[in-house]
Write a structure and sequence with these properties.
With 76 residues, this protein is of the alpha+beta class. It has one domain: Arc Repressor Mutant, subunit A (Orthogonal Bundle). The chain contains three helices and two strands. The protein has a two-stranded antiparallel sheet. Helix 1 crosses helix 2. The chain is elongated and about 65 Å long.
Length: 76
């Protein structure tokens, strides 16, 4: 999907989506492919990588956060 397509789908400003996809791309969560246009120029398409890998990473982050919160509460 292009940034414009994602922006329309989520009803968010294009610049907001652009920042988000750049961040995800820099963290290697999504891939970016360049497509050259017939009349000159190019456009980037963004593709999600392995969904299962992303789910696993999110679960690890949430679990780590949860354990940290529980530990902080118990130390009170």
């Amino acid at each position: 999907m292009t940034v414009s397509e994602i922006s329309e789908q989520f009803d968010k400003e294009r610049t907001t989506i652009q920042k988000a996809v750049q961040n995800l791309h820099s963290k290697k969560i999504i891939d970016r492919r360049q497509m050259n246009l017939n009349n000159g120029g190019y456009i980037y398409y963004y593709l999600i990588k392995d969904k299962d890998q992303i789910k696993k990473k999110i679960k690890e982050i949430v679990t780590g956060w949860y354990k940290s919160v529980i530990s902080t509460i118990e130390d009170m």
